[in-house]
Amino acid sequence: MTSLSGSVPLQSPFSVSFEFFPPKTPEMEESLWRAVQRLEPLAPKFVSVTYGAGGSTRERTHRIVGRILAETTLVPAAHLTCVAATRGEVLEVADAYWAAGVRHIVALRGDPPAGEARYTPPPGGFPWASELVAGLRARHDFEISVATFPEGHPDSISLDAELDNLKRKIDAGATRAITQFFFDNWTYLRFVDQARKAGIRVPIVPGIMPVTNFAQMARFAANAGATVPRALAPLFEGLENDPETRKLVAATVAAEQCQQLARAGVTEFHFYTLNRADLTYAICHILGLRPCRADDGDPAPVGEASSSAAGERR
Ligand code: FAD
User: Which of 11, 98, 153, 210 suits a disulfide with 279, CB 3.0-4.6 Å?
Assistant: First the structure.
């Protein structure tokens, strides 16, 4: 493993975005909010909030996005899916976001609702993300990001089909692709190369998943079509009841992944935070990102991070 020290400049050339999911309970919401406050001073480009399978979190997603908009300096991006809704219903949600001041949508097909193994296009709805992008583009001047899958989407017949689909989404008006998480950087870099050859010019931002719980991540990966390298499992072996050491290992692995990507020229990262700040914060720190004060943009001591974030402005 190469050394982490001395390989990143203090003034970070990197920009980051953070993904959260809408919490189910008041306790989980508290924990989400602590994560938001801790990460806010790192001045991410945007923070996104997911939309539960089948639109099951519609209200919660809307509420969290609204709170981010009202109570922080962060730019929220609301995830929106095609699942279990007509075109009119989806566009109504988009209208409500626009009216609330949200200007960035992550437009997705969506996962099948719980209990359904396969995706079926909803009657009267948008069948695919590309059509949702076109619908949103015609409705409001949103910034639109979309998903992409460097190892191919599980439903795609080939990587070429994945690239064709990404191209359709960009041609329909999306301006950024965010990847499914991956662990093999060469797979991602090859995919970006192929995308450029296919005429796709927008940023293809790597989605980074810091692994805190190996078994849970392996389940996510199996559903998402992401390969888990053989070398990863042994790093977490024997740490099932040792969350502190697991965190240290996870931060090292993800920081190493980001640094390798940075050496290959990547300057933008999207972190799947799982509503926790600690690992994402540590990795961003290693990338050279430092907290800024809300008032003057200067770095603030880490201990002041929460008071210089939403706390002071409320
Ligand atoms: P699409 O781009 O519509 O593609 C899905 C599949 O359909 C592909 O195999 C594609 O090749 C195929 N396809 C597309 N168009 C056509 C066509 N015209 N004819 C035939 N086949 C076609 N899920 C959620 O439920 N909520 C979220 O908040 C959420 N956030 C996500 C964020 C990111 C960054 C990522 C990477 C994924 C996210 N997902 C989320 C998961 C995502 O919704 C699923 O992986 C879904 O199965 C695919 O979504 P998509 O937008 O890529 O779909």
Answer: 210
Measured distance CA(282)–CA(305) in Å, rounded? 13
Q: Is the CB of 128 under 6 A from ligand 1?
A: yes
Report whether residue 108 contacts ligand 1, using a CB cutoff of 6 Å.
yes
Distance, CA 147 to ligand 1 centroid (Å)? 6
pLDDT, tens digit (0-9, with 9 covering 90-100), for 173-211? 999 999 999 999 999 999 999 999 999 999 999 999 998
Predicted structure pTM score: 0.91
Name the residue with the closest Cα to ligand 1, atom 40. 110
In sequence order, what DSSP letters do the residues of 279-298 get, joined into one string?
HHHHHHHHTT---B-TTT--
First to last CA, the chain: 44
Which pLDDT tens digit goes with each residue over 18-43? 999 999 999 999 999 999 999 999 99
Half-sphere exposure of 88 (CA within 13 A, CB side): 2
> What number of other Cβ atoms are within 10 A of residue 181's Cβ?
22
**Ligand 1: which residue has its CA nearest to atom 19?**
128
Return all residues near 237 (Cβ < 8 A) that are at least 6 apart.
none
